Each structure stands twice: as C-alpha cells, then as structure tokens.
Amino acid sequence: MSRPHPRLREASDAGPAPSAPPLLLRPWAYEDAAALVHHHRDPQLRAWLATHLDTERQARAWVAAQSEGRAAGTRVAFAVVEETTAGLTAPLGHVALTGEGDAAARIGYWTAPEARGRGIASRALNLVARWAADGESPFTGRALELVHTVGNEGSCRTALACGFPLAETLPAAPPARPRAQHLHRGTDPRSPRAVQRAARAA
What we know:
The protein contains six helices and nine strands; from the N terminus they run ββαααββββαβαββα. The protein is an alpha+beta fold. It has one domain (8-201): Aminopeptidase, CATH 3.40.630.30. Strands 1, 2, 3, 4, 5, 6, 7, 8 and 9 form a nine-stranded mixed beta sheet that branches. Strand 5 (93-98) and strand 6 (105-111) form a beta hairpin. Helix 1 (33-39) crosses helix 3 (56-72) and helix 4 packs antiparallel against helix 6 (192-201). The longest helix is centred in the N-terminal third of the chain and has 17 residues, at 56-72. The termini are far apart.
C-alpha cells in the first residue's frame, strides 16, 4: 500500500522576514484546476514548461496524473501555498520529485507570476530537498538533481542558491530534449538559517 501524500510545513521562522507567512506544500487537488490554468497563461512560465494546461479539463487530468505517480512511488508533486492568519492561500507555485528505481531523483518547480521575487521557489526547493533525505520519503538515499533549459536564469539562480551547483550542460537532443539544458546536482540539504539566506538571495 502506498504511503499517504505528505504535507510539508515550513518552520515559522524559516521565511525571509519575520512577517513572511510560512509555506505549506500540499497535494494538488481537482479544485486547483482554475488556478493551474490561470498560471499557465503566463508567457514566462509557458516559455520554459514542456506541458501547457490550457483548459480545466487538462488541469484535472494533470492532477490525476500526479496522484497516479504518487501511488506508483515515482512522483510526488506539491502545490505551494502560504499559511496566513486568514487561512491558506491559493497555490503560488509547484514543486515535484520524480524518479524510478535507484536512479537520481529529479526536482522540478515553478512559481506563479504574482509570487516571484519573494523567495518562494528557494524555500519550497529547500523544504522538498530536506524531506527527500529523511526516512519518510520514497527517495531517501538517492542523489538529487534538477534540470532547466539554458537561458532560464531564474531557475538557475534558485538552484545555485539552494546548494545545487551546475554539473554539466546537456546538449539539445530532439524530440525528447528540444533545447540545451543545465543539469544541477544537489549537495547536502540546507540548514534553516541557510534557507533564509537563499530565500533572500533568489
């Protein structure tokens, strides 16, 4: 039987400022379909993502695929929200771990336009990387990698700030890899204090 989908909570003092609401990483739900379509209309996001969700039907199918990956033990995807005094916000981003067998687990992420520049991606990436290293994760003991298209400077800065140095540049190999990509390999998950510094820098 597969484990229940984890919900990852950020420590209340891990944000870039004392007033910043902590992050909660929760499963994607069918109710998020409208938010997903809204975010996927962003030209900057569409420039880097291989999958575009143009309708709520497509978004619900995508949510179902995330659940299937979790059940198979090959993918764990999270909606990134903030825990405010008024309750949970709508999704501000996405972060996911994928991998099969003993191969390295790959982390992917994106941030909604209205949430950029606030360290959301850095904090979510660090939170997932620390969880991947603990005994509750199906990815425990596996190396962590992340890949982004060359030219995506925001993702590159976030990776470097969070302890994922650039390992190599993968040449374009259509159709599976239409553009060259940067491959980053993870080091040790950052401490809470280092997370704060990375969030301010990204």
